[in-house]
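The passage that follows is intended for readers who have already worked through the single-chain material. We present the inputs for a multi-component assembly, then the predicted structure in tokenized form, and finally a short commentary. You are encouraged to pause after the input and sketch how you expect the pieces to fit together before reading on.
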Amino acid sequence: MTEATKGKITDVRELKDVARRVRIHILRMLTTAGSGHTGGSLSAADVAVAIYFSKMKFDPKDPFLKDRDRFILSKGHAAPLLYAIMAEAGYFPMETVETLRRVESPLQGHPCCKSLPGIEVSTGSLGQGLSVANGMALGLRLDKNPARVYCIMGDGETQEGQVWEAAMSAAHYKIDNLCAVVDNNELQIDGPVEKVMGIDPIHDKWEAFGWHVIDIDGHDMEEILKALAEAENVKGKPSVIIAKTTKGKGVSFFEDKVEYHGIAPSPEEYEKAVKEINNG
Amino acid sequence: MGENTQNIEDRTQITDKKPKATRDEYGDTLLELGGKRPDIVVLDADLSASTKTGKFAKAFPERFFNMGIAEQDMVGTAAGLSLTGKVPFASTFAVFETGRAWDQIRLTVCYSNTNVKLVATHGGITVGEDGASHQALEDVALMRALPNMTVIIPADAAETASVINTVADYKGPVYVRLGRAKVPYVMPDDYRFRIGKAFVFNLGKDVNIVASGLMVAIAKKAADMLAKDGIDTGVINMSTIKPLDEETLLTVARSSKLIITAEEHSIIGGLGSAVCEFVSENFPVPVKRIGIRDTFGCSGNPDELLKYHGLTAGEIVKTVKSSLDK
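Having made your guess, compare it with the prediction:
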């Protein structure tokens, strides 16, 4: 990819293929690293792939392109997902994924913008990405820059108070060049979100904060594309996509397993998982 | 909160200019900069009347973002704005700016190395009557510990103007700590602030007082008192706490039987600590720290509070004499 792309892939089957490859990159780097967050990287994969490859304008050769669309992975522990997408897009050679979590690797345990151009801001301490996304959206609006900002949060992450400060700000400043996504996989490290600290009714909360709320199956590529298009057309208020997802999606023995939040696959699990993904 | 009309005791007036609060100068300088620099944006957390960013807000409403009482969101939003090429100045009281949003400053400002200017007002004990909850005595320690951060405390209004203009041109995270109370002008008319460069009023052969903020004026008065007693005392305005002017500090250490640090901040983690860290590793000389002694503040007027916490010329003189007698 040598020049900025916009809406490069619109074919659902093709996007699904990219998502399959991205899942395999994720598992490869996690297995090599021997640690990292498997479940949440896989749950958000379909939405993130759709955003990057069907919607976003970006140029891996010019990561600071002025009118690039911006992507913030507020749930920074899903870094392998972001790295897999960036490798797939051509930001760095595929072999680099083998360096995940090593000293001086551009692929730090959580995304570091100073280590890897193309990452907009460092994340990892939860609850902060939406505020930064708002700031970017406001800056772009001041410059009459047509770029859009995307921000993926975890559902457990919305327990952070700052998320709701940012939710208030986005509505107050009528930020409509921003699309937020909540990866609603219903699990967090200590257990089911509803048991640890319930966040429901999540749809009503965002709506009450002044957002346009779109509920979807976060693994149905057609629904994802429709939701992203809908969000783009909403004016005068911010949009959030509540993507109902499955933690560990794509690998049967990781799915809905809370213990795979922060555990990497073993080499044996990796082999089995890749077979499943390729057959799925 | 009522406007402070109290003046700081121990002031040494070297010009005819009336004392002015550094926050007032910030408001004026920011307003002026706003006209010249369309890339400057300002954020506040519902304290724009007190931090004086309100003047900018009135003149440039489209570039002013009141974030409400939400400091964490304010800092994150400032980081985002900076990532689109804006130069954000984010202001609130020092205690909230640094304490409430510390992790946000750490991750999205310092670790991400974004071009955010955190300019906090109401630093130190001279916040006065509002009491301990509003008096930042630990903010410098919190900011100084962060990699990539520059920490600045101007001594008077003129230096404040110079600081604000300088940091607007500098690329990277900056914390500027300003005060609520009026302070006298102490810096020479031709002085220009440079990041990381201390100002030596004079180098003492016996004692040197390394001071910051409003303690510079108080240190000058103490030096005059000590000179009358035959103790040759120098005064240094260490307005950049980080990066520390190590070159000047080494010269100071080589010329000192005793170094006094004077700051309107806890003796833990601020200027006193920074000086001790450097001196003990490079040219050990005795250091005595004047500052808030590991305690919270309380209500009172600024003058009373400075006396109550021993931040006076008299206290500096007493400390020097008792230390030299040993």
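Commentary: Chain A has a mean pLDDT of 96. The interface with chain B takes residues 70, 112-114, 120-125, 127-140, 142-143, 145, 161-162, 165-166, 168-169, 172-173 of chain A (CB under 8 Å). How closely did your sketch match?
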